[in-house]
From TrEMBL:
<dbReference type="InterPro" id="IPR025875">
    <property type="entry name" value="Leu-rich_rpt_4"/>
</dbReference>
<dbReference type="Pfam" id="PF12799">
    <property type="entry name" value="LRR_4"/>
</dbReference>
<keyword id="KW-0677">Repeat</keyword>
<dbReference type="InterPro" id="IPR001611">
    <property type="entry name" value="Leu-rich_rpt"/>
</dbReference>
<protein>
    <submittedName>
        <fullName>Protein phosphatase 1 regulatory subunit</fullName>
    </submittedName>
</protein>
<dbReference type="InterPro" id="IPR003591">
    <property type="entry name" value="Leu-rich_rpt_typical-subtyp"/>
</dbReference>
<keyword id="KW-0433">Leucine-rich repeat</keyword>
<dbReference type="InterPro" id="IPR032675">
    <property type="entry name" value="LRR_dom_sf"/>
</dbReference>
Amino acid sequence: MNDGEEYRNPNMVGSEEEEDTMNGCLDLTGFQLHDLSEVDIPETLVELDLTTNRLSIIDPRIGLLTCLKKLSFRQNLLKDDGVSPISNWAAISGLEELIFRDNHLKNLPDVSIFKSLLVFDVSYNEIFSLSGLSNASNTIKEFYASKNEITKMVELDHLHELQILELGSNHLRVMECLENMKNLQELWLGRNRIKTVNLCGLKCIKKISLQSNRLTSMTGFQECHALEELYLSHNGIAKMEGLSGLQNLHVLDVSSNKLTSVDDIEKLTMLDDLWLNDNQIATLDGFGMAVAGSRERLTTIYLERNPCARLPNYATTLREVFSNLLQIDSDVLS
């Protein structure tokens, strides 16, 4: 145990934790346990949260919890061999949520026995490939694998029910295997190496993040008419285009690009937040017309570190154009 690190005795739980256990929930978050040998694990558990411990193996008693629906090993010391036994524990095959976030896995765990799995999280590991994901249940609605070493989007075709896909902070170069995800609501692919947008015909998606990639064009979003939030900061985009049909867009972030003007959003009427900071926009002339459809709705705008932000009366001009602004850059308006 590190100096200053608090140890909590798992057998000295408070009244709230005792009540949770009676209701089928056992939360051992932050107990710094190396194993569960001193922990009573009721057979009726529905939820078991082992976040922020020191576990390197999975206690076999967990494999006997026939009522278990949610199991979290977030922020532990699990490696592949420590996780592998779970793939044979048929008694917990009804699990709906399985979290291995922030461990030391190098391979995707075998979750083929979990036929009702809804949430599967392996983010913040050292996984190099999605190989084996094709064996996972097609019931999965949320899959998180950010901050790994993944190079290709593979074995995703069968996930027809997927609503959230998080593959940010990997080494992806191509957007692929999205064709069958007709129910996908959120796609998070920030901090990769993607050069071209390819949404494979997705039309119902509501949130997309491609921040910190290698995009030079905004084309590819034209058919995403349900889109509400679009994050494209830290790319190499020089022109705003392909946005005029996105009538449900509430948040648009194109900060830290190479824009010199604001284009193709004059017909958008739902914009609340517009992030244009860290570009090369020189003037505010015609800015009101460029954002005409959202002039009465826009509440937040970022333009700092553009040449126009150094102009006299910069903030005053924006307030005159957008009557309902609540924030200009980092300044909250009174």
